Amino acid sequence: MSKWSEELQETTRMEVFPGAIMKDEDHNYGIFFEINGNVVIKGIVPGSGLMPKASDEILATFGSVMEMVEAGWVMD
């Protein structure tokens, strides 16, 4: 069971977009991308300020947005 509210999970499922800032249940942060039909969460360059930049580090990869949300990732 996710620690995130059902409302936040549903909002993420319906409204997530490339470049969205994401967080997981351990409060790791990343940036949402869709690459070659997969959902990819990339790390954030430290110190990139108010406009976070994606790093080359891949934090997680999923087959769908549904899988991503089920794994505990939601929009921040």
| Secondary-structure element order, N to C | HEEEEHE
Could you say which overall geometry the principal axes of the C-alpha atoms support?
globular
The major pleated sheet works out as: 5 strands, antiparallel
Mean pLDDT, to the nearest integer, reads 96
Helical fraction: 10-25%
Count of separate DSSP helical elements: 2
Provide the β-strand percentage band: 35-45%
Number of domains: 1
Query: What's the count of strands?
Result: 5
Spatial order of strands in the largest sheet: 4-3-2-1-5
Structural class: alpha+beta
Unreliable spans are: none
Distance from first to last alpha carbon: 19 Å
In angstroms, what is the radius of gyration? 12 Å
List keywords for this structure.
5-stranded antiparallel sheet, alpha+beta, globular
Task: Give structural notes.
The protein is of the alpha+beta class. It has one domain. Helix content is 21%, strand content 37%. The protein is built from two helices and five strands, in the order αββββαβ. A hairpin with a 5-residue loop joins strand 1 (21-23) and strand 2.
In short:
This protein has 76 residues and is of the alpha+beta class. It is built from 2 helices and 5 strands; from the N terminus they run H-E-E-E-E-H-E.
Which helices and strands appear, and what pairs or packs with what?
Layout: H1 6-15, E1 21-23, E2 29-35, E3 38-44, E4 54-62, H2 65-70, E5 74-75
Antiparallel strand pairs: 1-2, 1-5, 2-3, 3-4
